[in-house]
Amino acid sequence: RLGSGRTAPTFKESAGGLPKGSTPVGQYHTHGDYSDINFNRTNKAGDVHNSDKFSNSDISIHNRANKTFPNYTNVLGTPSGSFWKIFGKVSGPDDAIPL
């Protein structure tokens, strides 16, 4: 929905559908199109959310999951068409490696 902000499930919410006895090893998510301060679609030059990188919230959710499930992997698809991966405990978006 244009102009309404971002939504992101918590790790607990996203892990809720796993079969009993299974162990999460990672997750994949995408960032929507580039957007301005009001979350309206724009081009890369007008993007204020750094949509081609993991966000601080992404990193926080990932590191919490990694505490419970060591070597947890998180993959991000970006508006530019790039894919990035973080693995284990990470310090920030610059720890991501391209896929």
Give a nutshell description of this structure.
This is DUF4329 domain-containing protein. By secondary structure, this protein is α+β, with helices and mostly antiparallel strands.
Write the layout of secondary structure elements.
Blueprint: H1 11-15, E1 26-30, H2 56-68, E2 73-77, E3 83-87, E4 97-98
Parallel strand pairs: 1-2
Antiparallel strand pairs: 2-3, 3-4
Protein name: DUF4329 domain-containing protein
Region (Disordered): 1-34
Organism: Gilliamella apicola
Summary keywords:
2 helices, 99 residues, alpha+beta, 18% helix, DUF4329 domain-containing protein
> How widely separated are the two ends?
29 Å
Apparent shape: elongated
Rounded mean pLDDT is: 88
How many individual helices? 2
What gyration radius follows from the Cα positions, in whole Å? Answer: 14 Å
Helix content: 10-25%
Protein name: DUF4329 domain-containing protein
Region (Disordered): 1-34
Description:
Residues 1-34 are annotated as: Disordered. With 99 residues, this protein is α+β, with helices and mostly antiparallel strands. The chain has one domain. The chain has 2 helices and 4 strands; from the N terminus they run αβαβββ.
